[in-house]
Amino acid sequence: MIDVEDLIALVRNYNPRTNADLIRLAYAYGLAMHEGQFRKSGEPYFTHPVAVAAILTEQRLDDATIITALLHDTIEDTRSTYSDITAQFGAEVAELVDGVTKLTNLQLSSTESQQAENFRKLFMAMSKDLRVILVKLADRLHNMRTIKSMRVEKQAQKARETMEIYAPLAGRMGMQWMREELEDLSFKVLNPDARNSIIRRFLTLQRESGDVVHKITADIRNELEKVQIEATVYGRAKKPYSIWRKMQEKDLAFSRLSDIYGFRIICDSLPDCYRILGVIHQRWRAVPGRFKDYLSQPKNNGYRSIHTTVSGRDGKRVEVQIRTREMHEVAEAGVAAHWAYREGVRTQNPFAIDPGKWINSLTERFGEGDHDEFLEHVKLEMYSDQVFCFTPKGDVVQLPRGATPLDYAYSIHTRIGNSCVSAKVDGIRVPLWTRLKNGQSVEIITAEGQRPQSSWIDIVTTGRAKAAIRKSLREEDRGRFIKLGQELARAAFDHVGKKATEKALRTAAKMLGLNDEQDMLARLGSAELTARRVVEALYPELAREDLDVVDASRPVLGLQDDQAFRRAPCCQPVPGERIVGITYRGKGIVAHAIDCPALAEFEEQTERWVDLSWHAGRHAAVHTISFELTIANDAGVLGRICTLIGEQKANISDLRFTDRKPDFYRLVIDVDLRDVEHLHMVMTALEAETDVAQVSRHRDLARKP
Ligand code: MN
């Protein structure tokens, strides 16, 4: 186990102003907490956090990150708590340790490739601070380096996870060495035969053609010396995993694989990079199409380099990368280059990518915000508008922030959304409007015959769920409207002494130019069409007779010949009720009920008052009255109410819901009535119905004549 003073020395190398006392405290704290715990290998457990911290010193990270590494398993595995760590090491470290713990607790049970990208996003979404991911990657790297002591099945699972999630994550953050090492360690577990055979072939190759790496390195150095350019040249065989992947991708045998060696030339300045490129291309033949200039166009994780491939003496290809020292640092450390210290200060590497810009480039969202502040504690905002949840099988589902179990259900399948009755989050029953959080597992409980509720529209956030709910509600409405239309048609036909047979309805629909009788009934039920027009379509002569009773356009006495007449929409008086006429300029005479509160404003204008009275004869059922109803939300109630109204030979001309509660609906129904007697018949019939909680005349003073 690395001694605390050795660890501090590693930090001091790049950060002389490190808070050594705090590192000592964290070391002692971690050691005490993990006391008595051992790794599978038999070593004391604390060797692991110390090794993770040491890995992070190679990336020259700040004190908070090093201390987090020392404490990263304490909350999870010991009696230590978040508040304990806050008290001893401050809020910053506590937040970081807590972040690592959350990632550790994720159950990545499904590592199918199509899920891997979601997992990587989940990681970023759950890490409020980039340093959490850096610690988690170092943690995984150490676990992979020591994987041999694990159980065999566990090894395979960890290796798959590493290959699918952690290695690409390291690559995305620009840490190529870490990516390669994680891949190779996983490859060793997942496919040891393939890896061994590649290593054997390397050895054979070396026996046949000698140490190629050494020879080419020397050649390059020699060429550079001739033109007096200072540079460091490294050469290496590519990692077995990347060779194996190339063999798979290009379906090539090892012997036919070109560029299995890679060389790096690290120089001092940008002009040198291009001069070196000239030297290389003069000495060896460049392979067309393989030249890439990431100096003028860096990758979005800050990577800058010149890449070229040349063919050597025996036609073998080698890849050469050329870059400056500072660029190399970024290429190795990636985004972490920003935290790196050198000689006690944050390095001002001009090529280090601003993590804020990096994040923006990943999400293509360019925010404002103070970048210096941002750098202090780089927040991973890239997926902050997303939330990632698990299915019971362990797949990750990506949803917009604010999504509820209903959104989740609809994202799985419309059928599951429509038949959703309740949901469990992490095994606990929750209301459907619960907002989901990252990493929660969600289970939807469905029931046959369940239908979407209109209140669901306000619960869901995804367009997909909203559209599905609306569609279902519309279909349900249509069913209801058809039923209502049937009742309306029956009442209207009865009224003229005819039967509303299917054939009669179909013929009427045809006469009205509609698709079929269902279409007609739905329109009738939704008041797009009046029952009168349906009857008229079949029996024009009967309809006219019905209208002959009292002239519906002039049902009152007291009008002058040229005066237009209307019923006031505020009080909706009907024949039999006492009325008063008020003249409105340009609108003729409007009849108000004698007790209408709207009359108060005409008290001083006696010249506008007109004496009116209803005709004594039989009136047509054309006087619309609005009823306000509260009814039980049970199957069939609405249908019964419409039947009741139909039985009273009254026509429903409109119906609108004003409130839908799980147990009660409130609605306003417009009914066309003959007179006050007819009104009482309808109200009495409605009041007698058990499922009607309340019925009243709906008077709306806001409706001006
Ligand atoms: Mn660990």
How would you explain this protein's 3D organization?
This protein folds into four domains: 4-190, Hypothetical protein af1432; 194-346, 2-Layer Sandwich (Beta Polymerase, domain 2), CATH 3.30.460.10; 471-545, no CATH class; 548-705, 2-Layer Sandwich (Alpha-Beta Plaits), CATH 3.30.70. Helix content is 47%, strand content 17%. It has 27 helices and 23 strands. The strands form seven sheets. Strands 1, 2, 3, 4, 5 and 6 form a six-stranded mixed β-sheet that branches. It has a four-stranded mixed β-sheet with strand order 15-17-16-18, with no helix packed on it. Strand 16 (579-584) and strand 17 form a beta hairpin. Helix 3 (47-58) runs antiparallel to helix 4, helix 7 packs across helix 9 and helix 9 runs antiparallel to helix 10. The radius of gyration is 40 Å and the shape is elongated. Residues 360-382 have low confidence and may be disordered. Bound molecules: manganese (II) ion. Manganese (II) ion (MN) binds next to loops.
Topology:
Blueprint: H1 4-14, H2 20-33, H3 47-58, H4 63-71, H5 74-77, H6 82-105, H7 113-126, H8 130-145, H9 152-172, H10 176-190, H11 192-209, H12 212-226, E1 231-237, H13 240-250, E2 261-267, H14 270-283, E3 285-286, E4 292-293, E5 306-311, E6 317-324, H15 325-333, E7 341-342, E8 345-346, H16 355-363, H17 371-376, E9 386-390, E10 396-400, H18 405-412, H19 414-418, E11 420-425, E12 428-430, E13 442-446, H20 456-459, H21 463-495, H22 502-511, H23 517-525, H24 531-538, H25 540-547, E14 556-557, E15 565-567, E16 579-584, E17 588-593, E18 609-611, E19 613-614, E20 623-632, H26 637-647, E21 651-660, E22 664-673, H27 676-688, E23 692-697
Helix pairs in contact: 1-3, 2-4, 3-4, 3-8, 4-6, 4-8, 6-8, 7-9, 8-10, 9-10, 10-11, 11-13, 21-23, 21-24, 21-26, 22-24, 24-25
Bound molecules: manganese (II) ion.
